[in-house]
Design goal:
It is a single chain. Helix content is 38%, strand content 20%. The strands form two sheets. The chain has a six-stranded parallel sheet with strand order 1-4-3-2-5-6, with helices on both faces. The chain folds into two domains: 174 residues, 3-Layer(aba) Sandwich (Rossmann fold); 92 residues, Pantoate--beta-alanine Ligase, Chain: A,domain 2 (2-Layer Sandwich). Strand 5, helix 7 and strand 6 form a beta-alpha-beta unit. It has 286 residues and is α/β, with parallel strands linked by helices. Bound molecules: adenosine-5'-triphosphate, pantoate and beta-alanine (BAL). The site of pantoate (PAF) has 10 residues, from strand 2 and helix 6.
Length: 286
């Protein structure tokens, strides 16, 4: 697996693969890779002949006071994991390579409505930063398909919308969330947790699962269900950012008649913000 740092080298390597008739898959990441990322690369490797991954901690999607500076940078270990997972080319650009003219005058891509609420409410500008960098990366790599994790459910919805709305000929694949044995969704930010907080964190997925189970059993008093679980999260020591039930396909608030639902949560453990979600289609076999 080669690592390239410039757009020029990236384009040359992708052009070589294309000239050999290969289909291109793409997995964008921020690095500090775990088995969740490896699953995305493995899915791409099943579908195409040439898999490109990127590692770029994108300043444009971090708000003031967020963890941009302390976000873990672990390039050598990441290269090894990508190789094992079946990646052919890693693009690891600098901030100057991605934003050679700075960020203030950078053209932005924004996806209204889907970017509002949930993570967009507590991270203003976040999804504009994501949509902008993903659009740039898509134009640099020009893949046939790209794979994203369902763990970042709202992000996946934003990316599906931008590809649709901007007529990009790229198939977007959403991969299920890879979890630790105790249910906690793998995330680079889990590394910030103390031992004590790591032991508490699985309560997030337990709460989502309990809500899903209650809805499956016929409970439709969503405010009551959410309030109960909010109390549980807070009793366990988490500070809730949001806990919501939305329509799975468009993220609009769910009504009692909706059958295809997603339950989404974001909460703080100390200063670490964790997110998770559970897709619940009441018409699908359990
Ligand atoms: N547990 C997981 N299972 C499947 N995909 C995942 C998982 N965690 C992250 N991803 C996906 O990997 C891609 C890159 O995400 P990113 O590098 O931000 O990882 P992360 O572990 O979610 O980091 P962070 O803790 O900063 O949110 C995204 O498409 C994201 O949805
Ligand atoms: C998609 C992404 C790589 C864009 O910076 C990032 O938001 C992430 O890691 O999910
Ligand atoms: N995992 C999504 C990227 C972010 O939190 O900035």
């Amino acid at each position: 697996m080669n690592t390239v740092k410039t757009v020029r080298e990236l384009r040359a390597a992708v052009a070589r693969a294309r000239s050999e008739g290969k289909r291109i898959g793409f997995v964008p990441t921020m690095g500090n890779l775990h088995s969740g990322h490896a699953a995305l690369v493995a899915k791409a490797a099943q579908r195409v002949d040439f898999v490109v991954a990127s590692i770029f901690v994108n300043p444009l999607q971090f708000g003031a006071g967020e963890d941009l500076d302390k976000y873990p940078r672990t390039l050598a270990a990441d290269q090894e994991k990508l190789l094992q997972a079946g990646c052919h080319l890693l693009f690891a650009p600098s901030v100057e390579e991605m934003y050679p003219d700075g960020m203030a005058g950078q053209t932005r891509v924004s996806v209204p409505q889907l970017s509002d609420g949930l993570c967009g409410a507590s991270r203003p500008g976040h999804f504009e930063g994501v949509a902008t960098v993903v659009s740039k990366l898509f134009n640099m790599v020009q893949p046939d398909l790209a794979v994203f994790g369902q763990k970042d459910y709202q992000q996946l919805a934003v990316i599906r919308a931008l590809v649709h709305d901007l007529n990009m000929p790229i198939q977007i694949i959403g991969e299920p969330t890879v979890r630790a044995a105790d249910g906690l969704a793998l995330s680079s930010r889990n590394g910030y947790l103390s031992e004590e907080h790591r032991a508490i964190a699985p309560v997030l997925y337990r709460s989502l699962s309990q809500i899903a189970q209650a809805i499956r059993e016929g409970e439709r008093d969503y405010p009551k269900l959410l309030a109960e679980q909010q109390r549980q999260l807070e009793a366990a020591g988490l500070r809730q950012d949001y806990l919501e039930i939305r329509q799975a396909q468009n993220l609009r608030p769910a009504t009692f008649e909706d059958r295809d639902l997603v339950i989404l949560v974001a909460a703080y453990l100390g200063s670490t913000r964790l997110i998770d979600n559970l897709h619940l289609n009441l018409d699908a076999p359990a």
